[in-house]
TrEMBL record, chains A, B:
A Pfam family annotated for this UniProt entry: Iso_dh
The protein, known as: D-malate dehydrogenase [decarboxylating]
Molecular function per GO: tartrate dehydrogenase activity
Source species: Bradyrhizobium ontarionense
Function: Has multiple catalytic activities. Apart from catalyzing the oxidation of (+)-tartrate to oxaloglycolate, also converts meso-tartrate to D-glycerate and catalyzes the oxidative decarboxylation of D-malate to pyruvate.
């Protein structure tokens, strides 16, 4: 029985990079005897919203909830539709309703991609950011009082639950334990955010007791961002709350040269629901429609998806193909200083798959 | 009548760099005909806490509230005293009770200091981070429910008031307007933090109407941290909430080579209360007691203090002396690859003051 993948290209360059992602997955699947079926969906896009007045059909959960995974391009088009409508109406809904409590992103300096950090070489930067993906600072509790007066104020609660914090920490410690360095770094800010962050620290300490083989440390988020720039070689697995993880998983890829090639997974580790795999770059309205977007983030996200499905070899063959394509420097898109278009770059990676 | 400066060395290397800060201020003051009187206080330190069971005397406000400014070393010693006791018992008390609602930090690549960012030269990175310093994410509202059970949860409110947001934005727009580029960047996260951050954006938009000469833009904090690394030359004045400003004002100095030399001001612009000037580095227990700390953050903070007091020439003479000392590369501390001690470095800067 083939894996059933729900394909959602979404907006902007999401539509342009998706075919290349599928091309490479199909190539790797064929070579490794993996059967994959792609089902295409047009919702979770501005086009759909324009026609239907909402981002997704009422029965979206029935339509894609039974799939093995969701392969997602990008959503959002700030000039046309408010972020809170487009994002909270799709991406954040998936995260919450499919309980994708792990947001996982590799931070790896790839061969052939110059780092903005002086003197860093492939191998120097190679770690994972594990982000809590359902609660924390992204809450819906809060409001405004005395509107339009001088006394006006607005509040929003950060919410951390025992369940929510413990399960992301468990995932992060497990990941650290599976890696050679066995090193976990926790992002905190307990010296300033004096209620929720000390709780986070407390749960890290408690969880660490179950992983005596893992060395762990913690940094306040301010100095941690500084250390991403000054000492990216210090890190192996970095875990953070929804907001801190969000920041670190953009800053990390930036330190490796371009967020244009970074992949991500929104993962429900128990597989009770499909997980979403998407490139870190957004819909990029400024370059959409020109066919010049870099498809590597989409392709790499496909590798993460295959890995999540248990197809390690096929996944590894794609990551290897990306590395070799980048290292050869012949076929690269404009963001990396070349002039290949999206399709040519996707084909080049597909050709490298072994 | 001399300016009356309250001197609080605090903990660790705070005590070691303070004499150098004073040395350089006294030199500049003499050369520029400025009269300064330093009054020394031993509270806001672990030593004081050990003797008295609290960080500061009950009448601390009476003791230092009438001074023209507070010159502050560093506070905190995590192994000996919990951060929330030491920091909330001194630094954060000053910020709140002296209404120091602006936290101001320069991000400037100095001559002779190698940037961790490839190919960046002095002049490429030169901007200010303006941080809201009294409310936002650093609130005291929140708590824990169902402790020690599986249902346990913790909440903490972010609080933004009209007064609090508008006054920091006004300060930032004024600063931008006074600079050649007249460019303001606002840090937001309205696509994820869906109540307080859209309010922040709304107030930025409203405030911008009063400053038609200032070009402004906004970035979500995740991509903004990425842009600090990828495009530090884009920025002129960057304004953020208490948390976002905290992050950006550590990340910014990291991009310029070392947070060991960065200064900061906790400012009450109306001068109803004294402002605090302190280096960005903390008490640094790991190198305390060895006399090797870099005093330049302390000295530069002294220049910011003189500037705040209206003594522009004296302030500028100190910044120039720092630049020349760093550019000559002869007398530098270990963090910058030299082997001068704290005192030698302080004397070198003092000698350069003109
Ligand atoms: C020590 C800590 C509470 C403080 C803060 O977060 O405000 C520090 O990081 C700073 O930036 O001055
Ligand atoms: C689009 C936005 C809501 C989202 C987030 O902050 O979670 C994005 O930045 C991401 O990291 O996937």
């Amino acid at each position: 029985k083939p894996y059933r993948i729900a394909v959602i290209p979404g907006d902007g360059i999401g539509k342009e990079v998706m075919p290349e992602g599928i091309r490479v997955i199909e190539t790797a699947a064929k070579k490794h005897g993996v059967a994959v079926q792609f089902d295409h969906f047009d919702f979770s896009s501005y086009d759909y919203y324009e026609k239907h007045g909402q981002m997704m059909p009422d029965d979206w959960k029935a339509q894609i909830g039974g799939h093995d995974a969701i392969y997602f391009g990008a959503v959002g088009w700030p000039a046309k539709i408010a972020d809170h409508v487009s994002l909270w109406g799709s991406l954040i809904k998936f995260r919450r309703e499919f309980d994708q409590y792990v947001n996982l992103r590799p931070v790896r300096l790839m061969p052939g991609v110059p780092s903005p950090l002086a003197g860093r070489k492939p191998g120097d930067i190679d770690f994972w950011v594990v982000r809590e993906n359902t609660e924390g600072e992204y809450s819906s509790v809060g409001g405004r009082m005395f509107p339009d007066t001088e006394r006006e104020f607005v509040t929003q609660q950060t919410v951390m639950t025992r369940t929510g914090v413990d399960r992301i920490l468990k995932f992060a410690f497990e990941l650290a334990q599976s890696r050679p360095k066995k090193h976990l770094t926790s992002a905190t800010k307990s010296n300033g955010i004096s209620i929720t962050m000390p709780y986070w620290d407390e749960r890290v300490e408690a969880m660490a007791k179950s992983y005596p083989g893992v060395k762990w440390d913690k940094y306040h988020i301010d100095i941690l961002t500084a250390n991403f720039v000054l000492h990216p070689d210090w890190f192996d697995v970095v875990v953070g709350s929804n907001l801190f993880g969000d920041i670190l998983s953009d800053l990390g890829p930036a330190c490796t040269g371009t967020i244009g090639i970074a992949p991500s997974g929104n993962i429900n580790p128990e597989r009770n629901f499909p997980s979403v795999f998407e490139p870190v770059h957004g819909s990029a309205p400024d370059i959409a429609g020109q066919g010049i977007a870099n498809p590597i983030g989409m392709i790499w996200s496909g590798a993460m998806m295959l890995e999540h499905l248990g197809e390690k070899q096929a996944a590894q063959s794609i990551v290897g193909a990306i590395e070799r394509t980048l290292a050869e420097r012949t076929l690269r898109t404009r963001d990396l200083g070349g002039n290949a278009d999206t399709t040519a770059c996707g084909k080049a990676v597909a050709d490298m798959v072994d």
